[in-house]
Amino acid sequence: MPALVLLGAQWGDEGKGKATDLLGGSVDYVVRYQGGNNAGHTVVVGDQKYALHLLPSGILSPGCTPVIGNGVVVDPAVLLSELSGLNERGVDTSKLLLSGNAHLITPYHTTLDKVTERFLGKRKIGTTGRGIGPTYADKINRVGIRVQDIFDESILQQKVEAALDFKNQILAKLYNRRAIAADQVVEELLGYADKLRPFVCDTTLVLNNAIDEGKVVLFEGGQGTLLDVDHGTYPFVTSSNPTAGGACTGAGVGPTKISRVIGILKAYTTRVGAGPFPTELFDEDGEKLRTIGHERGVTTGRDRRCGWFDAVIARYATRVNGLTDFFLTKLDVLTGWEQIPVCVAYEIDGKRVEELPYSQTDFHHAKPVYEMLPGWSEDISKAKTFADLPKNAQAYVKALEEMSGAPISAIGVGPGRDETIEINSFL
Ligand code: GDP
Ligand code: IMO
Ligand code: MG
């Protein structure tokens, strides 16, 4: 069965964009199933670099149909500007399909995201400020605005008024902000209708038919397993389900149709925003990882927090996603260390713990137990096969595979499409 899920196994920014682009040439559909323009997926093709936020990375592969599924939250202004930015660079975006059931991020959602963070002060999540949390909250509260609503003015007016009646009280009375006029929001949203109409369809029907016809469908996750609202480091998470099950609900495809689940795994660990991070480094090694790995956010430009590889997290990602494969990225960044620490377990209140603790308190107290693996100094960016890697780099990969619980089927040795060692074929 030709449906694959590709998702982040850590806290996001593992290299999902590159991995999706690599497979893009061989798949018929690439589908975003959750999140929104909080994502920042980098794709490097030759000397061209693209940063995609809302559009699936498959949009850069001419034979591939990009799909934004029902589980995504869509900021229409961002979508249109991303499309026109790609058009200006000669990318054909006309095949895009957009679910009429996807929820819209409106100006009041972005405002609420920012004021809520300010109000939280020290306890803030460190969101991307793109309105993601408030839009998903409205969806669950059944006061959201969906893509299809902008094609019916009277319904749109009623829904925006209903949503704003309540929100304006909060904005004015709690946050001391000016109320937002419903008419203005309605007018803005109606202005997108003609531009978006050509893309909108029943994506669930299209995708299920495609799978039944034997077409290859790739579901591209945003964020990562530890940012999942159910399975991540709650409350320091995003507001959607990047984990494998999210592909089913976020695209309307049953779990029996999914044949493979690929976890994208960085050879070390990074995190953006607040929240626990047991292997985080505050010394020059952390700074070195940040500099060599160019660990700066694609969406917000914030420096990423950096640390050593955490096998407890990787094992957890294998478990909650049912991973069949890993795609290990950024192995090249680790070149030059004499020894590389890898976290194999945690110590929590004096006890060794092998699995991710379900209790938030325990996770906050988790101290990494490190095993030292020998490093390598040879440049590996030109390696094409596993055998081309220095012995110690091979041993590092094999050790990570052993600890993480699923085969490593590809290895990234640079940002470019061809800077990849393919071990097992994904298709
Ligand atoms: P995503 O959000 O998971 O798509 O990842 P990001 O694009 O936010 O961050 C990953 C960064 O690492 C990007 O700048 C990629 O170009 C880069 N990258 C991906 N794979 C590799 C790799 O194997 N080696 C190196 N050096 N860079 C990589
Ligand atoms: P990609 O797809 C890394 C983080 C934010 C914050 C938390 C909640 O590029 O891997 P949100 O705006 O979603 O409400 O913020 O989630 N976050 C990401 N971190 N990569 C991402 O996406 C992220 N998207 C959200 O930094 O901590
Ligand atoms: Mg990213």
List the helices and strands and how they pair.
Layout: E1 3-8, H1 16-24, E2 29-32, E3 41-45, E4 48-52, E5 65-68, E6 73-74, H2 76-88, E7 97-99, E8 103-104, H3 107-120, H4 132-141, H5 153-174, H6 182-190, H7 193-196, E9 200-201, H8 203-212, E10 217-220, H9 244-251, E11 260-266, E12 269-271, H10 284-292, E13 305-307, E14 309-310, H11 311-321, E15 325-329, E16 339-348, E17 351-353, H12 360-365, E18 367-374, H13 391-404, E19 408-412, E20 420-422
Parallel strand pairs: 1-10, 1-11, 2-5, 2-10, 5-7, 6-8, 7-9, 11-15, 14-16, 15-19
Antiparallel strand pairs: 3-4, 12-13, 16-17, 16-18, 19-20
**Helix count from the secondary structure assignment:** 13
Helix content: 25-40%
Query: Average pLDDT across residues?
Result: 97
| CATH superfamily annotation of the largest domain | Adenylosuccinate Synthetase, subunit A, domain 3
CATH topology descriptor of the largest domain: Adenylosuccinate Synthetase, Chain A, domain 3
